[in-house]
Amino acid sequence: MPALFKTKNKGSGIGRHATVTGVLFSFAVVVAVVTIMVLSALERVASKSNVLDDERSRETMSGALHTFAAQLSATLNDYAAWDDAATNVYASDGMEWTVSNYGEMSVNSSLFDMAIVVDDNRKSIMAYQEGKPMDGTLDDFFAPSLWALFDRVKAAGPGQTPEATGFVDTKTGIAAVGIALVRKKSGELDLPPGQHRYLIFARHLDAGKIDDLGTTYVIGGLKLVPAETAATYFVKIEDVVGASLGKLVWVSRAPGDIGYGEVRPMVVKALCLVGLFFVVLLVIGLLAGRRLRAEEVRAREETLRDRLSGLLNRDGLRLAVDSFVQHAAQTNRNVLILYLDLDGFKEVNDAYGHGTGDQLIRAVAAGLKVLIPEGAVLARIGGDEFAIAFTSEDGDAAALQLSEQILDFLAEPLEIGRRVVVIGASIGIASSVGGTVDREELVRRADLAMYKAKEAGRARMTLYDPAMDADREERNALELDLRMAIEGGDLTLAYQPLIDAATHEMTGVEALVRWNRPGHGPVSPEVFIPVAEASGLIEALGLFVLRKACETAKQWPELRISVNVSPGQFRNPAFVDYVRYVLRQTEIEAKRVTLEVTEGYMIQNPQRTRQAIERLKTLGVKVALDDFGSGFSSIGYLRQFGFDRIKIDRSLVMEILESDGQREMLQATVALARSLDIPVTAEGIETEQQAVAVRLFGCDTLQGYFFGKPMPAEQITERLLDARSKKMGARRISVA
Ligand code: C2E
Ligand code: CA
Ligand code: CA
Questions:
Q1: 160 located within any domain
Q2: Total number of domains constituting the chain
């Protein structure tokens, strides 16, 4: 994978990390804030409930004090408004009754601990404390507020209850004190004022009583303290005149605090759970996000990949080479790029179908993968075009070496399923030294070099050369001119005689196309035919040559006419139809026409070739194998394809006199062809010796400058006329 993808991923990784931390941090903050808010709300609830509870305690406590006094008051009423008391207390011998019913009752009573009877003048008649006569005077024992209560009772008017209760300071503490007029239950009393007697009950708020209160009313730490003592929770005890006697204080139960203390850990736990939940959510989200991003990256990468081969595609290559060039510029390395075009892929596709073609592409891709150096990228940039790019410290050497290995690999027959196919490749190489040539230009150069390699023939590699640019321009201009020449009918034909080896008579001609390019002069077909083939102009050119040759040959009934056919034409399934069409149009006898085809195409597409040749032969035309001996051809093809004739290539004929090897080879080839009953033409005969030699070897037809260069049709006509008149002369002589 190109470095580019990696850097991109790394970059977004850092970004993602930052966002994750950010989101986690925000979550933490939110959870913390929520925790604080919930806790402070709870605290508020707690202190509120504390306050409420304290208020309740205070109410309870003051109620309790009230009840304490009220109980005393009820008891007092029972004892003072009593018919027996109204009799005995006032009786002169009532002392015994008074002591046993009042005084002695003050022991072990929860209701009162002192019972006193006084007269109207505050004089004590009986005073008992805890069941015993009390020591000292009343004034010593009670604070003066006792007499304020007493005065209230005395002052009670008709209709008012002559009773009063209140708290009074005593020598031993604070006591609830009640004073009541001793009278009949009905309230009546026969005695006049001045002779009245009063019952005083006192009930001390001692420690035991206070404990009882605390237990009864559920108030903790209840105790009595002096009025001046500072306290938070208390109830004041005041006497009748409103003077503070002391305070009942207690410890707040703080139920809110207790509840808060209990609830707080639960709340914290719950919020932690919420926090955890969010973290889990976040993690799930992150994972989902990561998966999405991974899918996105995969999808993006897929757009850079070729589906069939799994290699990078043209876009992928572009990115990779861009990053190579950038990298090379920084590190002063060289970017090397190889463009590779398979020879013969189209033929495999045509012959065996796309399935086999696809398999071939995969097989080539797999092979190339093994060959490329580490760090190199391999791309499929077209149907049968591949590219390899890598950086290197040395110049072209690495690329040349790799190309050689690739060519060696592709020269081997490839097994595709049960078929064995032979392909090859043309390789163009370009380099960007120190990243000085940008991707676009680099790719253009490699493409151009590849084109050159292809032009030069199969299985070649070519290094880009600036001269190629000039060539390319020249070639483009040539193509343009050629198109115009074809459209404008400016091409002409030359005809080269084909000679009978035995009689040296002209038996046929080969039509050879000629082009006088305006402003340039004559251009060799060896230059413009490849251009026509590469540009698709060959179809129109071929059609023109065939028609023109056939039309022209009509005036030479005794001659055969040979026409060259390019592989590009032969490959076209409609070719046979268009030959039939021209034959019909020009009304030439089919058997006089020979189509010369070169072997290149046959090797790659034997089945198609055989079919095409068969169909042509049903039209009646002959098919010759041209340039035999110049390439890969073997005699096997001759038999396989049913050629009517072979033409030994000029290159083989050239040296038969100088080279024994060449001569022997030509001899053997001709002998073999003849053994298969296939007649042989020798082309490129320039001397008489060559003509004699090839004739001896068995060639029945000869062609070459020795017998005549390609010439205009008129000269062929002249030659024919010459030959006819010579024949006539000879006949005349023989007749004479
Ligand atoms: P070819 O088919 O092998 O044609 C024979 C070539 O050898 C011709 O070159 C001819 O001028 C040349 N030649 C013939 N005798 C001699 C000789 O004794 N010595 C030497 N040195 N050369 C000789 P030309 O006309 O330049 O054609 C070159 C090639 O161009 C042809 O080779 C053929 O492959 C192609 N070509 C020519 N015309 C056409 C055409 O109409 N259609 C197609 N498809 N190809 C054509
Ligand atoms: Ca030829
Ligand atoms: Ca030839």
A1: yes
A2: 3
